[in-house]
Design a protein that fits this description.
This protein has 401 residues and is of the alpha+beta class. The protein contains 9 helices and 7 strands.
């Protein structure tokens, strides 16, 4: 059955609905009053006529008046009694009709005035109710990428519309953060690629102009290093895109075995040996549901980041316990206010260095993206003596959706 749709805008429809309900309620009330008054009107008039000795002209006595006007020694005849009863009935009928007509006329006039007042009040009420919706609509139409900082900030008592406005403000907060992050991502990605291209161009134009074999070999190594950095950047961007799309399938992954394997690889790496950095794992059996390839990248990026931003003779500790992966490293002191921004793409604690093996600035952002795909919670904290502690807490299998 098709749903009945009222014409006009929301305010018109609310006015028709509220006004119609008020008019119907008024009509029912007036009808009930007429019905109840009509039922008792005949009895009331009859009693009033019976108490009256004569009518206004004095020639139409009632039965009671006839008895009082007649000497007590005279008994009214049946004809007199019949005439008095007939006269009383006629008077009662005429009075009842006149009273009902007057009551109906007054009721209809009152109902008409009530209907007009109901429509006016319903129009005003609908406007008051829909005013916050109008504020939300005007704000939504006015918003663009340049003024996402505007908010509704509805000043109203708690209720559904206040909750709607607050929800809209919260959505704008998230949109502003997302748009800001996307702008920073685009700017930083362009900067990374432009810097690499500038290095390549400078090496090609300046370095290769000489005939010195040693200089040519040095420039060759530099070009290969920059090409490797660009390759890692592209791979990081692709991995970030894949992880943002979520997981198509889940499989049991032994997180402790994965952490132990990745830790052993980094402990035997060239950087750990050159800088005398200790890399060790403290794991207990933990199995999580997820993508083995993405989880491998997550652990690799965490341990690689902890190894890269460390000092000579430093330490990296990988702990797996109770569904939580924790990577702690020594290193330079990290300002606590900068920690949340380290999970954004291309955000580094120090300026970019084009050294061999350096990451492309996507390590922790990839970690955060893979964690979100696995419904895991990431948390970073600056260590008092320097370095970071990063935790990835995976949900229990029964909580996965």
């Amino acid at each position: 059955m098709p749903r009945l749709q009222l014409p006009g805008g929301e305010r018109t429809r609310l006015t028709m609905l509220y006004g119609g309900l008020l008019v119907v309620a008024g009509a029912m009330l007036i009808g009930l009053v007429n019905f109840l008054v009509g039922r008792g009107l005949n009895t009331t008039i009859s009693m009033a006529v019976a108490r009256s000795p004569l009518d206004s002209d004095g020639d139409a006595p009632t039965l009671h008046g006839f008895a009082r006007a007649t000497p007590s020694t005279r008994v009214p005849s049946p004809a007199d009694q019949e005439a008095a009863a007939k006269a009383a009935k006629e008077i009662t009928t005429v009075a009842e009709q006149a009273a009902q007509h007057q009551l109906l006329t007054v009721s209809l006039v009152a109902l008409g005035a009530f209907a007009v007042l109901s429509v006016v009040l319903a129009w005003w009420m609908a406007g008051r109710v829909l005013r916050p919706v109008g504020v939300i609509t005007r704000t939504a139409r006015r918003l663009s990428g340049e003024n996402l900082h505007e908010r509704i900030a509805l000043d109203a008592p708690a209720g559904e519309l206040k909750q709607l406005a607050d929800t809209f403000d919260g959505m704008l907060d998230r949109m502003e953060q997302l748009v800001g992050a996307q702008k920073r991502f685009a700017a930083n990605a362009a900067h990374e690629l432009r810097t690499s291209l500038a290095v390549q161009r400078a090496a090609a134009e300046i370095g290769l102009a000489t005939s010195d074999p040693k200089a040519v070999a040095r420039i060759r190594r530099k070009l290969i290093s920059v090409a490797d950095s660009n390759e890692r950047l592209i791979e990081g961007l692709l991995l970030l895109s894949v992880s943002e799309q979520g997981l198509d399938r889940r499989a049991p992954v032994a997180l402790d075995e994965l952490a132990r394997t990745v830790t052993a690889e980094h402990a035997a790496s060239e950087r750990a040996g050159e800088h005398d950095i200790s890399v060790r794992a403290e794991v207990s059996p933990v199995t999580v549901q997820g993508d083995p390839v993405l989880l491998t990248h997550l652990v690799h990026n965490l341990v690689g980041n902890a190894l890269r931003y460390n000092h000579d003779g430093g330490q990296v500790t990988v702990t797996v316990r109770n569904g939580t992966l924790r990577v702690t490293n020594s290193g330079p002191r990290v300002p606590p206010e900068t920690v949340p921004y380290l999970f954004e793409p291309f955000r580094r604690l120090h300026e970019r260095r084009h050294g061999t093996g350096e990451g492309a600035g996507l390590g922790l952002s990839i970690v955060a993206s893979i964690a979100r795909a696995h419904q895991a919670r990431t948390h970073a904290e600056a260590n008092p003596r320097g370095g970071l502690t990063i935790e990835v807490a995976f949900p229990r299998p029964e909580r996965l959706s």
